Amino acid sequence: MHNLSTIMFNEFDAKYSQSIPEYINATNDCHTNPIHAPEETEKAQLVNVVVPVRMKLAKDLIYWQGLPSLVSSDEDIRHFAFYILFKCLSRDSHKLDMYTKILACRSSDEC
């Protein structure tokens, strides 16, 4: 999943972003930012993120608010919304891939 989302992001980035400054920090706008989980494998292995993430999800509703931008009549707004969506998907799928591997490693005691 991570590989496909990264490919989608890279293709979209190459075609539409053209190094526009607003696009550089797009992950600041990800709706999953409130879920704090390390993005580096070494840090993730040292932290037990399952309980804090479950508590965060149970406590606060986290939802995506970008649909109006995706259907905007302004093409630049639509492009930026898709850019954010693909960038966040790529980042979050990387985390999912990494944490799945850590879980598999821990469950088999082969870490």
Q: Could you describe the 3D structure shown?
A:
- The protein is mainly alpha-helical and 111 residues long.
- It has helices at 2-17, 21-24, 41-46, 50-59, 67-70, 75-107.
- Helix 1 runs antiparallel to helix 6 (75-107).
- The model has no long low-confidence stretch (mean pLDDT 78).
Shape: globular
Mean pLDDT: 78
Under CATH at level 1, the class stands as Mainly Alpha
- Spans of at least 5 consecutive residues with low confidence: none
Number of strands: 0
Number of domains: 1
Can you count the helices? 6
**Radius of gyration over all CA atoms, rounded:** 16 Å
Output the CATH topology: Growth Hormone, Chain: A
Level of helix content?
A: 55-70%
Keywords:
111 residues, mainly alpha, Growth Hormone, Chain: A, 6 helices, 66% helix, metal-binding
Q: How are the secondary structure elements laid out?
A:
Elements: H1 2-17, H2 21-24, H3 41-46, H4 50-59, H5 67-70, H6 75-107
Helix pairs in contact: 1-6
Binding site for Zn(2+): 97
Family: Belongs to the somatotropin/prolactin family.
Keywords: Disulfide bond, Hormone, Metal-binding, Secreted, Zinc
What's the short story on this structure?
This protein is mostly helical. It is built from 6 helices and no strands. It is 66% helix and 0% strand.
